[in-house]
Specification:
0% helix, seven-stranded mixed sheet
């Protein structure tokens, strides 16, 4: 069993910044990749950013240039630095961990961008 815990969500004004953190624990043999997905009300869950064990980064088109993923997959932790936030970034942000045993999701953390 793998536990995934996110932290750092909250309310921020447009143009502001926020940092999310994710930590995985439990029976982890190895991690292939970790990433952040988000889901706004009435919309499908979409990729925000992800990182492979080799260090390759992927970003969703809508966040490129504004969000930065970082962390240490060997230590089972990643972060998401979000800048120049827009109201359309409002969503529940989920951390996903990809392992040989399968994919694991956190409970999600709410990010609200509003004045």
């Amino acid at each position: 069993q793998v536990q995934v815990v996110e932290s750092g969500g909250g309310l921020v004004q447009p143009g502001g910044s926020l940092r999310l953190s994710c930590a995985a624990s439990g029976s982890i043999v190895s991690i292939y990749a970790m990433g952040w997905f988000r889901q706004a009300p009435g919309k499908q869950r979409e990729l925000a950013a992800s990182m492979t064990r080799a260090g390759t980064e992927y970003y969703g088109d809508s966040v490129k240039g504004r969000f930065t993923i970082s962390g240490d997959i060997i230590k089972n932790t990643i972060n998401l630095q979000m800048s120049s936030l827009k109201p359309e970034d409002t969503a529940v942000y989920y951390c996903k961990v990809v392992t040989p045993q399968g994919d694991w999701w956190g409970q999600g953390t709410q990010v609200t961008v509003s004045s």
